[in-house]
Amino acid sequence: MQPGHRSNARLSLASSQPSAVAERREPAIRVSDLSIVFETNRGQVMAVDRVSFDVSEGEFVCIVGPSGCGKSTVLNTIAGLEVPFEGEVVVEGQPMHRPRPDVGMVFQQPHLFPWKSVRRNIAHGPRMLGKSASQANAIADDLIAMVGLKRFADAYPNTLSGGMQQRVAIARALANQPRVLLMDEPFGALDAQTRAVMQDNLLELRERINATIVFVTHDIDEAIVLADRVLIMSAGPGRILRELDVALPRPRSNAILLEPAYLSLKKDCLDVIRAEGLRAFQQSDES
Amino acid sequence: MTYDNTSTAGKADPPVRRLRASPSAGRPYRLNLLVGALSVPLFILLWELIARSGIVNMVLFPPPSVVAVAILEWMRSGQFFWDLSASLYRVTTGFMVGAVLGIFLGVLTGQFPLVSSLLSPLFHILRPIPPIAFVPIVILWFGLSESGKLFLVVWGVFFTVWLSTHIGVQKVDRGLIRAALMLGTPRRQMLQEIVLLGALPYIVVGLRTAVSISFYTLVAAELAGSFAGIVYRIEIAQQNLQTGQVMGGLAALGLISFIADRLFAALAERTVWWR
User: Fold this and answer.
1) Are residues A230 and A264 in the same domain?
2) CA of B116 to nearest chain A CA: how many angstroms apart?
């Protein structure tokens, strides 16, 4: 990637970004020249091709792209779940090679422990880090209140709706007070109404925690509503096409979906994606 | 294990309540209940009538009244107690040993591919051999001692429990393991907190199957030569043409294995408490 590429790609709508301050400090996440090759029975497939980006402390970044573009793979690498890879992934100043408790993750499926109540699911992380049962339960109860599930503290996951389960999963990931929260299409399996509510919940939650968040989705609307910055990825092999600063005012909610500033951002996104789609189509036609 | 499961009592109401069955479904249901309650008495009555009608030989096919008298006699003589405890001892000890071995090795082969490569082929070759086929060699090895009988029951129980544990451990949701990894779960805790509990539903099914298998192998073990036991009593009675006693023994065996299965089902419900 050329040095000037990133600033050219930026489509800033307002100049109120604190980027000057943030950029001087060490970024929370630094991904440089990340390449990942999968061995399949049809030979080697390049899933991710020299992806580089930084995420500053406290920033909310969304990675958008079509399914199979390697965005989840990139996220798993930051989580320490995807090894081996080429390039460098540094989180909070430490290279990432295995999962770390200061990096939390919410998956597309809630993956709650079915044999544990909501409270015990959330208390699991603190327990594993050596907290006493009462300390861990206190942490869990705070988070249960924060995600609005007080009535269900003793319920088992199979009695909860999909949205509630995902709220528990978010609370569980926050229980270890991670510096970085990774979210892999966490609302992808929910219906449209629940998804909008969950997005608003997450935006509220974000104001109360100071974690750096990387959120993967294929939904452009979701990305713009949530993020400070959107990275658009292309498929086969996964590359970052563009970065867009989302300089919409905070606190936000789904209500911004009707703002003109939002719509012009979305248009920019769609233009990039359409151009890439067309290119990929022509390429596949030629070969 | 480090947690307790006392919080089941506080389980919240499910968000959606199931609708009640409509009232029109009541009558056939009650009829079914009535017919169900009559099933066994009708069978016994029919049996009594046929046995006493003279179309069959009453000595070979005794009516239930004769069987009942034989059972009472068996109990009154005190032999029943000894036979029952001898059989129960074999079944429970053999079951316990087989189950513990099966779970232990199942976790090992399910969790560690190297151990699996070493043991699974062997187990898959030995598993299909019916335990009864081992009776002759067991007599040579152990004579008529108790250890030979335990060996047969353990053999029967072990493979079933091993296989279901092995499969259960392998089928533990990878997503749960990834989630647990992200939460900082250490390796040792991963086994007891995630893998064992994730495999538990499979293990319980295997154990329940093994309960009836342990009774099958008990029959083989006691027929192979013993000095007390329910099946031993059936064999002795057969040699003396005490057909009432033979059928009484069969009834006792059926009842005991039925009770064992029910008890185990109730226990299983509590073991997999989150279902």
Assistant:
1) yes
2) 24
SS3 at position B2: coil
Extract the tokens encoding B162: 């091993």
pLDDT for the residue numbered A287: 53
Per-residue confidence (pLDDT) for residue A285, from 0 to 100: 67
For residue range B141-177, list pLDDT tens digits in order: 998 889 999 999 999 999 999 999 999 999 999 999 9
- On chain A, the residues whose CB falls within 8 A of the CB of B275 are 158
Q: Are residues A157 and A257 in the same domain?
A: no
- Count the domains in chain A: 2
Which residues between 236 and 265 in chain B have a beta carbon less than 8 angstroms from any beta carbon of chain A?
none
* B178/A103 CB distance under 8 A: no
Please judge whether B182 and A128 are an interchain contact, meaning their C-beta atoms are less than 8 angstroms apart.
no
**A251 within domain boundaries:** yes
- Interval A82-140: pLDDT, tens: 878 899 999 999 999 899 999 999 999 999 999 999 999 999 999 999 999 999 999 99
> And the tokens for B19?
């609708």
Domain that holds residue A60: 26-102+178-287
For residue range A203-220, list pLDDT tens digits in order.
999 988 889 999 999 999
Low-confidence ranges of chain B (pLDDT < 50): 1-16
Which has the closest alpha carbon to B181: B191, B168, B190?
Answer: B190
Residue A61 near residue A213 (C-beta atoms within 8 A)? yes
Q: What is the DSSP string of B90-138?
A: HHHHHHHHHHHHHHHHHHHHHH-HHHHHHHHHHHHHHTTS-GGGGHHHH
| Predicted structure pTM score | 0.80
Question: Band of the pLDDT at A39, cuts 50, 70, 90?
Answer: confident
Q: Does residue A120 sit at the B interface (CB-CB below 8 Å)?
A: yes
Shared domain for A208 and A92, answered yes or no, is: yes
Contact A159 B189 (CB under 8 A): no
Residue A154 lies in a domain: yes
Residue A20 placed within a domain: no
Domain finish residue from A176, A195, A224: A176
Backbone dihedral region of A49: left (phi > 0), alpha (psi from -120 to 50 degrees) or beta? Answer: beta
Residues A182, A279 within the same domain: yes
From chain B residues 170-199, the ones with a CB under 8 A of any chain A CB are: 173, 175-176, 178-186, 189, 193-194, 197
- Residue at a domain's end among A176, A199, A231: A176
Is A151 domain-assigned?
Answer: yes
CA distance B62 to B73: 15
Rounded to the nearest angstrom, the minimum Cα separation between B188 and chain A is 11
**Architecture in CATH for domain B60-271:** Orthogonal Bundle (1.10)
Check pLDDT > 50 for residue A10: no
Q: Is the complex ipTM more than 0.90?
A: no
